[in-house]
Specification:
By secondary structure, the chain is an alpha/beta fold. The chain has helices at 3-10, 15-22, 43-55, 107-116, 125-133, 183-191, 207-216, 232-237, 254-260, 273-276, 290-299, 302-317, 325-348, and strands at 30-35, 60-65, 74-77, 90-93, 119-122, 141-143, 167-172, 198-203, 220-224, 241-244, 265-267, 283-285. Helix content is 38%, strand content 15%. The strands form two sheets. Strands 2-1-3-4-5-6 form a six-stranded parallel beta sheet. A six-stranded parallel beta sheet has the order 9-8-7-10-11-12, sandwiched between helices. 41% of the residues are buried.
Amino acid sequence: MTDSNRSEVVGLSSVSDQINLSNIKTGQKQLVNFVTSDQDVSEGLSNIFQYFDLYGSGTFEYVVSKRSQPKCDIYHYHGSNFVNQSEKPAVVTVHHDLEDGSGQYDWKIVRESYRSVDKVICLNSSQRRFLVEHGISRQVINIIPYGYNEDRLKLKTHYPFVAGGKLTIGIASGSYSGRVKGGAYLLDLTKKLDPKLVRFVVVGQSGGVRSYEMMNFGFEVRCFEYLPCRIIQNFYNNIDLLLMASELEGGPACIPECLATGTPAICWNVGMATDLIVEGENGFFLSGDTTLDAGRIMSLLDNDGQCLRGWERGLRNDRRQLISWKYNVAVHEGLFLTMIRDAKRKWEIGET
């Protein structure tokens, strides 16, 4: 992503537009209902809601519920309960990979609901392309990617790798295995790496399972099944690169996080990685061939890690493609105010 299209991605023409919108005061706080699915709210989504409380301008009050609440000014859907919704004005954020048409997000089930909402927020350009190709108007789509916590994530001052030592690979492990979180691919890839030259740091709810598998292959592994957000910087400080094996993603949040700390990433060309990873500059994309991918990872150690050092220098010098959660919240609030203004205009001329 370059400066020329950064404004398009966040859906506003400039930061000044965002500030002007945030200065539109109505006297009384506007109520935004974050509507989730019937399942328990994930830790990641809970963290996102907390950012709105932390960085909000004070114009809005936020309430989280599994079902829509009456008399709200904005209904912002973050799960499957936007299907067949009728409240207005309504916006939905696409947190999942639209190419995964299974279960509750089967396109045949959700298609009309996407057409009925006032706005759709995508995390990446691939989601927008999918929606446009499937008949959703480009005019209702805004791209607002996940941010990073600029108060807790900083550029690291050193990297673990030293010439002649081991390459330290970080893995943010999902809570379930299989195709979605790349369990089978990761297992096969690991078998083809050299435990004398590679070690792992694994975080996440299924990290224990991942770690046990890797240790059976002879790897040195450190595992943290629960890592509080306040010390997530420590994870990135202690790895040379992040390996994301998920083949289907809307985000994930760990991609902007790792890049914000100056950590390169190796991942599939999916989700936000498509917009943020530049092949050979701040990481590379997995090919689907574990032998080829393992060879590319091992080659990072060639010439005392010269390629890896080049990526690290580039990340230190250019993080313009990233946005903070503070900026993310400001853009959302600008969009909310625009939606309220448009809804009021329609009511005044009798369109609703």
